[in-house]
Amino acid sequence: MAEESKSIQVQNQSLVSSEDSERTHDRPCFIPQTDIYETRDHILLNLDMPGVKAETINVTLEKNILTINAEAARVETPEGYRLVLNEYQIGDFERSFRINELIDREHIEAKYKDGVLHLALPKAEQAKSHKIAVQAG
Amino acid sequence: MYPYFRSPSSIWQRMDRLQREMNRVFDQALETRSNPSGYPAVNIYAAENGLVLHAELPGFQAENLDISINGETLTLSGERFAESIPEEAHYHRQERGIGKFSRTIKLPYTIEADQVQAELKNGLLTLTLPRAKTDLPRKIAVNH
Fold first, then answer.
1. Is B111 found in the same domain as B49?
2. Which residue range(s) make up the domain with A17?
3. pLDDT digits (tens, 9 = 90+) for B67-94
4. Using CA atoms, how far apart are residues A58 and B70, in angstroms rounded to an integer?
5. Is B95 close to A33, i.e. CB distance below 8 A?
6. Closest chain A residue to B57, measured at CA
7. Complex ipTM, two decimals?
8. For A91, which residue in chain B has the nearest alpha carbon?
């Protein structure tokens, strides 16, 4: 099952390497873990992006490249405290996907809740599968 | 000549100390970089009178998280559920984990369990863990 979905993702949404461009600030940048699923009318994405500032979340769809990025909210060391165990780093998130479906750009919905970004990309009318009536004769 | 007599041994001592220092630095560096301890990864800040713990838990609701403290042992457990998707939908990609986790962390202090504060915001859990009064260091006056 995992193998099968892998082959689908390579065709449909290949990851654009974020090393294509270099970052100008020294905070680490993470690739958010993402679920993508498709219904008849939508392509839906859920991305784990804990601890980002909601107002810095940027979703762009240019040609067929969907790019999501967000800035981490600064976590200040509380006054008088020092870090004694550091298992994860705080960083920004960025990821791009190639979307092969035609998307109705005007009606993309994005919602950030509990550290997860939910995106709903409605398929454009002409991209929805139509049943073509074949005329005989 | 007398002053030189001691110098070889002190060089070795210094080398030895340097070596130990280097080992400690490398051990620490490795310890902080890898994350062998399990899910979720945590960052802990300490001051003399308490601790602050951060953990990244995206997609968790407060009611599905369980935090328990027993002295200096903290147990974090919880469950993240799969999203209910329409029947005709199919996944292209499923990277986000679902299911249960439980992690026990030994804290450096005994914690005043009934004064712990927990906040879950944007998938980031913040625990404020005050140190138990009985655990606070006490200054001992020396009688002259």
1. yes
2. 2-126
3. 999 989 999 999 999 888 888 898 998 8
4. 42
5. yes
6. A50
7. 0.73
8. B56
